[in-house]
Amino acid sequence: MIDFETFLTALYVFVEDFCKSRWAPERSRGAPAGLTRSEVVTLAIAGQWECFGSERGFYRYAQRHLRGAFPRLPDRSQFNRLIRLAQDDIAASFRCLAEVLREPADLFEALDGTAAPTRDAKRRGLGWLPGLADIGWSNRLGWFEGFHLLLAVGPAGVVTGFGFAPASAKDQPMAETFFAARHRADARLPTVGLSADVPYVTDKGFEGEDWHAHWREDYGAEVITPPKRNSRKPWSRAWRRWLAGIRQVVETVNGSLHHMFRLDREQPHELGGFAARITAKMALHNFCIWLNRKLGRPSLAFVELISW
């Protein structure tokens, strides 16, 4: 285990050494901020741990314990504004981590969707994100209000790309946008990551022979999905168990995002802040894998990484 200050130092050094060169040139936005871009990105990523409870909880912790490392920490409203403005830098840092951790020997990527609730679905009124977040179904939560998050995960648990849409969005249309953005490197969707030269393994939400043929021919994306039970070409039980076994890694990643990095506790007031925090969670997940490898620990052993 390491203490949180050591973790924060390692994260800051990684951001400075590996990620900073990938950021777009900084444009003047009025008076200079109290924090550097590297400090903002570092704090945005580190603040996603579940133990802080919320952005407000992390800011209180930073005020009490991190003033020595960040003496120019601004007031909370300006700090939140700096994180929203740093969204592109956080996304570039996530891509950097995904590329550093990607292994040429990886044989597949698991593609899966998960719920990102933002509000109790039973509450009245439109909420903070009308027209953006909506009602969808999750096998884990039932009906929920929020967003549908699509993840691509390597065999070791590295998140190689992600995107999100309203909760009602279906898996196939989201995968269509995801594969297209990877194939053509769409700057409007910077977090989808690089195109994969390996098959994508998915669940039945991505089924459809026409979809698969289209993705293969137009985007070079080979998708492996178990057929329906009543299919003319059903899989054996052994094949289904094999696919479920190699897809288990994405379930583990989803569990970490929900329970260790507060994905289940997001209550955004505007889309930019939500996007910045989701991207910071993915970057934190990947950085923990990088640090565990440096420390000779299992990649996904996050629980005992830091001695709180």
From TrEMBL:
GO terms for biological process: DNA transposition. InterPro entries: Transposase_11 (IPR002559). GO terms for molecular function: DNA binding; transposase activity. Residues 110-287 form the Transposase IS4-like domain. This is Transposase DDE domain-containing protein. It comes from Methylomagnum ishizawai. The lineage of its organism: Bacteria, Pseudomonadati, Pseudomonadota, Gammaproteobacteria, Methylococcales.
